[in-house]
Amino acid sequence: SLPSPPPLVGPLSPNDFLTKIDRVLEGEIIGPESIVVDGEKVYTGLADGRIIQIVGGRITKTIKLVDDKRPADGSEDEEKFGRPLGMRQLSDEKIVVVDAFLGVFIVDFETESKRIVFDAKTPLKGAEARFLNDIDVISDDEVLFTDSSLLYSRKDSMKEIVGARGTGRVISLRISTGEAKVLMSGLHFANGIQVLPDRESLIVAEMTRSRIMRYYFGGVKEGTFEEFCSNLPGMPDNLRLSHNENSVWVS
């Protein structure tokens, strides 16, 4: 069971900060999830399966993970057209993208091409990925990503939330060899993931536990984990380091 939620006072007091934002492409795109900012370029994935590059408030390039003659027309086609979620910059105009249904892709906006580097149907410890969610980069050749559930896909995510079985995982992938391995398991709706500045540990959001866990993949604590932050005032999704790397943004 969860503890009583924290009182919304002090730093948690309600505010209107998000009412003062600038809206980009309002009404033109649906479901932008994770974003990558590279100077004047912004990249994001949409509910219709597209991954787009935005410059100056306009869509300048579009890449689909699934080739199809007719355009994707919304989230009801996610299993067919894909649903790009977490993404990070790998190098220059190369973006590594995790798709909830399909797997992990490297998308090159310079050549306007893509290639799959991990198929979601690949069994790891006897189980295929059902709900790939977020990703982060350790190096040009190694990435870490979350699998939210062994039981339900994204379209049935409410069943995972209600059931609270705790079957989420963190997976590491070496791109050059395709070798993948499970680093963490038994997580409650593993969601956002972020490698910390020490380059020896990561944090991962356990959404249905309203907490963030820390796992050490290197150093003297390698293979151990601990609670990083608990009893959050909401259900944590994406995690991203601040620009100065002194704090973490939690959405």
UniProtKB/TrEMBL annotation:
Residues 133-217 form the Strictosidine synthase conserved region domain. One of its GO terms (cellular component) is endomembrane system. One of its GO terms (molecular function) is hydrolase activity. The keyword Cell inner membrane does not apply. Keywords: Glycoprotein, Phosphoprotein. The keyword Nucleus does not apply. Pfam families: SSL_N, Str_synth. Belongs to the strictosidine synthase family. This is Strictosidine synthase conserved region domain-containing protein. It comes from Pristionchus mayeri. The lineage of its organism: Eukaryota, Metazoa, Ecdysozoa, Nematoda, Chromadorea.
